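Re: [ENG-882] Designed sequences occasionally contain unexpected residues at chain ends

Forwarding the minimal case from QA. C-alpha cells:
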C-alpha cells in the first residue's frame, strides 16, 4: 500500500528536490496531484511525473490524496495547513511551520482536532552522517559533550519578490531559513536549548530580512554551542561545518549540512590524560574516518512520514518539533532585538 501525495507549491524546493528525490522514488508513497500559482510550471511538473495538475488549491484538497506536502512561502503555511486539515489530509509542512510560535501552535492544534498527522520539514535529521554522529554521541564515544557548532551559509543577492528577503513573507532571513536547520541538528546531538544570545544584521545586502546571523546557545545539559548563518558569503567559501566536542574527543564534519547526502566526517578520540600536559602537544590521537552509506534525506523524510500514516504512528519529525523550533527562533530574534540573553520555554 502506498500513500497518495499531493503537493501544494510544486515549484521551488518541491520541484528541485522533494518530488524527484523524495516522493517519486519512495517505496511507500506516490505523487498523484500538484498545485502551484504558476500554472504553466505546474502543468509541466504534473506531465513530467504523471500527476494531475489542479488549477486551484480547493481542487487539490478535494482530490483523493492522503497527504499534502506544503512548500509555499512561510506566511501561507498556517492557513494552508488549517484548510488541508479541514479536508482530512495529513500534512508535511516545510519549516518553519509559520511566521510565529502562535501560527505553529494553531497548526498543531488544528491537526490534532481533525485527527491528522503534522510533520515538519527538517530533513537534515535523516542524513546518514548526522545519524551516525548522534549514535556516537549517545554511546559516549566522545565522553561528556561540551560544545557544538553548526554552519550553513550561501550567497543570496537581492532578487525581486523573493519571499525569504522580506520578513513579512518569510519570517526573517538567514537565521530562520538556514539557522533553523543548524539549531535543530545541534539539539539532535546535545538535547534541547535552554538559553540563547543572538546577533543579526545586514552587512552586504540591503533587503528587509537579515543577511547575517550568529547565535550562542546553552543547552539544558549545560553544553554550549554556536550557529552561524549568512546570506552574503559565496557558496564555495562556506564549508558548512558541523562539529561536536566532548571530554574524550570530537566529531568533525564538513559539507553534510545542506540539501545533499554526501560530505566528510571524522572522529578524533582519545582517552582522558592522567594529568595536565603543559606542552599541550597536538597529536592526531585516534582518528576514525567515518563514511556511512549515503541516504537521500528527502526520500527518507517522505518514507518516514508515509510509514507513520500507514502505521497510525507519530512521525519522527512531528508538529511538536516544528513548534519547538519556532520557540527557539523567536527567542533568538528577541535576543537580537533586546541585546539580552533569552530563555526558551
Amino acid at each position: 500500500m502506498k500513500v497518495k501525495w499531493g503537493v501544494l507549491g510544486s515549484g521551488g524546493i518541491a520541484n528541485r528536490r522533494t518530488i524527484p528525490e523524495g516522493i517519486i522514488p519512495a517505496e511507500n508513497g506516490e505523487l498523484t496531484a500538484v498545485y502551484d500559482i504558476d500554472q504553466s510550471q505546474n502543468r509541466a511538473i504534473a506531465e513530467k511525473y504523471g500527476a494531475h495538475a489542479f488549477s486551484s488549491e480547493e481542487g487539490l484538497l478535494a482530490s483523493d490524496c492522503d497527504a499534502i506536502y506544503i512548500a509555499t512561502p512561510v506566511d501561507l503555511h498556517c492557513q494552508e495547513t488549517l484548510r488541508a486539515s479541514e479536508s482530512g489530509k495529513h500534512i508535511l509542512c516545510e519549516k518553519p511551520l509559520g511566521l510565529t510560535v502562535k501560527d505553529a501552535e494553531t497548526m498543531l492544534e488544528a491537526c490534532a482536532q481533525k485527527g491528522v498527522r503534522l510533520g515538519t520539514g527538517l530533513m537534515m535529521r535523516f542524513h546518514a552522517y548526522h545519524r551516525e554522529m548522534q549514535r556516537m554521541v549517545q554511546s559516549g564515544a566522545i565522553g561528556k559533550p561540551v560544545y557544538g557548532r553548526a554552519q550553513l551559509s550561501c550567497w543570496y543577492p537581492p532578487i525581486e519578490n523573493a519571499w525569504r528577503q522580506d520578513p513579512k513573507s518569510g519570517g526573517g532571513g538567514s537565521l530562520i531559513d538556514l539557522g533553523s536547520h543548524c539549531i535543530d541538528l545541534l539539539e539532535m546531538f546535545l538535547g534541547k536549548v535552554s538559553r540563547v544570545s543572538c546577533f543579526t544584521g545586514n552587512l552586504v545586502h540591503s533587503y528587509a530580512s537579515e543577511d547575517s546571523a550568529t547565535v550562542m546557545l546553552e543547552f539544558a545539559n549545560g553544553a554550549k554551542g554556536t550557529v552561524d548563518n549568512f546570506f552574503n558569503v559565496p557558496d564555495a567559501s562556506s564549508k558548512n561545518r558541523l562539529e561536536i566536542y566532548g571530554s574524550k574527543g570530537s566529531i568533525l564534519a564538513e559539507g553534510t549540512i545542506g540539501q545533499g547526502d554526501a560530505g566528510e566526517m571524522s572522529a578524533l578520540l582519545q582517552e582522558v590524560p592522567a594529568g595536565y600536559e603543559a606542552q599541550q602537544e597536538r597529536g592526531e590521537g585516534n582518528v576514525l574516518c567515518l563514511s556511512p552509506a549515503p541516504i537521500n534525506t528527502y526520500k527518507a523524510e517522505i518514507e518516514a512520514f508515509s510509514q507513520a500514516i500507514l502505521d497510525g504512528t507519530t512521525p519522527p519529525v512531528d508538529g511538536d518539533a516544528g513548534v519547538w523550533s519556532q520557540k527557539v527562533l523567536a527567542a533568538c530574534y528577541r535576543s537580537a532585538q533586546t541585546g539580552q540573553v533569552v530563555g526558551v520555554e
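QA comment: On inspection the terminal residues look reasonable. The longest strand covers residues 193-201. Proposing we downgrade this to a documentation issue.
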